[in-house]
Amino acid sequence: MLFDSNVFNMIDWAVDGVEPCTGMYIRTLPLASLPSCQLQGPVLDLALRFNQFNANDYGFGVGWELTLTRVEVEDNVSTLVLANGQRYRIQSTSDGPVTLQYKKTQTFNCTMTGPGAYTITYKSGFIEELINNKLRTITAPNGKKIYFNWRDNKAFSIQDENQNRAGKGAM
């Protein structure tokens, strides 16, 4: 990220075109809506999003990123990036509840469970688990899960708890 600001948490990332509050150009390209667990588990709405202030290249070109929750580490600064585009600087480095800069609303809680391991619990009942700063599982309120299996630190596959493969991708 070229700079850190709370403005990224106020942006409506679902807008395509110029976001009226900030004047930023935003583009989100839906890729797939992947149901899981025979329509009883979480649905993964996978999209490719453009963020003009993201200097990283995840394989889609500079500024383009998948809408997957992750932790980005740059210059010893960790930033929690949620699937909806919100970004929070992680201020605590020990196991337990995580202190996030700019987080004002209680729509989710984040807990560090080990080095590079986090659990994000949303008010809706969904739970996301990150291992090695990458999304590992999404759990629906009914307990059904989808799993992300990462290879080579960029390529991944998705499957549900019934071992049904939902897709493959790269980040």
Q: In brief, what are we looking at here?
A:
The protein is mostly beta strands and 171 residues long. The chain contains no helices and 16 strands. Strands 8-10-11-12-13-14-15-16 form an eight-stranded antiparallel beta sheet, with no helix packed on it.
What does this structure look like?
The chain is an all-beta fold. 0% of the residues lie in helices and 49% in strands. The protein has strands spanning 17-18, 25-34, 44-51, 64-66, 70-74, 77-81, 87-90, 96-97, 100-101, 108-114, 117-122, 127-131, 134-139, 145-151, 155-160, 165-170. It is globular and about 45 Å long. The two termini are 16 Å apart. The mean pLDDT is 84.
Radius of gyration: 16 Å
Structural class: mainly beta
Low-confidence stretches: none
- Tell me, what's the shape? globular
Structural topology:
Elements: E1 17-18, E2 25-34, E3 44-51, E4 64-66, E5 70-74, E6 77-81, E7 87-90, E8 96-97, E9 100-101, E10 108-114, E11 117-122, E12 127-131, E13 134-139, E14 145-151, E15 155-160, E16 165-170
Antiparallel strand pairs: 1-2, 2-3, 3-4, 5-6, 6-7, 7-9, 8-10, 10-11, 11-12, 12-13, 13-14, 14-15, 15-16
